[in-house]
Amino acid sequence: xxxxxxxxxxxLQLKALKLDIPENVRVISVHHDADFEYRKWRxxxxxLRNSVLFNLRKGNRSTIAELAEMIDDLLKQPDDxxxxxxxxxxxxxxPGHRIGRNIPPSLKPxxxxxxIAKAFGKLKNRYEISSRVYLREHHGLVRSLYKDxxxxxxxxxxxxxxxxxxxxxPEDWLSVVRDWRKALSHRFEVAEFTLGKETEIDYINNxxxxxxxxxxxxxxxxxxxxxxxxxxxxxxxxxxVAQYTNEKNKPLLQKALRxxx
Length: 261
Fold this sequence. Notes:
There is one protein chain. Helix 2 (36-53) runs antiparallel to helix 3 (61-75), helix 3 (61-75) crosses helix 4 (113-121) and helix 9 (232-242) packs antiparallel against helix 10. This protein is 46% helix and 7% strand. By secondary structure, the protein is mainly α.
């Protein structure tokens, strides 16, 4: 499960993948408390991924082979063990993220997702890999991003990451889909982000079904909300500070308000 960002990935990792997991199933996620090995692996993976992003090394066959070898080392398990892996950062650096601000503009939201997809593709015959990505309608994506960024409206406001993402056209996200579909063929599928159209428990159980896990009940997942929606207080706060923010960010904040209010 590779995301995209802002499609409930954290919700699925915290709620769908922490209940009724069979003994022969290994869950890989940064939110899986016991998986220290993965945290260490992920650091090395991100370092290699970013070295390509900053042109410190070429995104060639050698790099793809090295990425595939890293993935292979992580996946090596007994033959009867199933692995459920959920991490939206497998796609690469999120669009507009502070890590990538000095990267030359790319035509794709995730500039090196094609390399990562090819690395997984090299292993598709060694493992029975199935991959899923969720896509979200544009207006809902903007609202979710806005909720995150209003939390940062203190002192110096930098909305460049938000601005970058809302400028990405819906069809541009499909370029990421094409990379993975080409690499994994019929083993890759696109699902619709349906939170808001269906209940949280239905969204969770749809994902668990795809994972081959049994359904869970609402009372089992009644924990704190992972990512609540935008409150009126956040909207009012953004309006209040808009007049005080610097000239560079003022148009971005005003555009955000026009889009979601």
